[in-house]
Amino acid sequence: MIPSLEQLAERFSRLVVTNAVPSRSPLPVTTGSAPPVAVATPAAAAAGQTAAPTAPPCPVQTVDYPLKGYHLDVSISPRQVVLAAEILDQNGFALDTITGVDWIAQNEMEVVYDYFHPLSVLRVVIRTRIRRDNPEIPTISPVFPGANWHERETHDFFGIRFSGHPDLTPLLLPEDADYHPLRKDFTA
What we know:
CATH architecture of one domain: 2-Layer Sandwich
Largest sheet: 5 strands, mixed
CATH superfamily of one domain: NADH:ubiquinone oxidoreductase Nqo5 subunit
CATH topology of one domain: Beta Polymerase, domain 2
Distance between the termini: 50 Å
Structural class: alpha/beta
């Protein structure tokens, strides 16, 4: 049975609430939004101005597929990535890709997992943030064996370690590489 978007959102909402996951920057929210909050940029605050209200961050969001390319955006804690992978596997999803994002100013790395359902149009993005000075997260390769290659590539380019991974040797970089070229502080 193919899950509905609402069923998936509900399942992840329970997961997030149970584990009190800190949220991130807001995305366009189509369900479950809270009242808008007025925010001000530093320059606007200095001038005594307040920016237009924006929706507060929400860890589970349905989004506009034609605009974003996915249906559900979920932010979870690093310790929940394996559980999220298991939920999606149980619902017939496949792993599309894993990548990283270097948020150097926040001293964080973000790991982004893209999933798709092969029998429907549903696409889900799972995000988690880890400290940049200790970028380690559990591997999901026991759930999705194909994650092995994606995790190796993410390790190569961002230096994110996937604990429990069977073989994090370089995939695309030279074997003796001690650099990670997609980190924002990388210099050649």
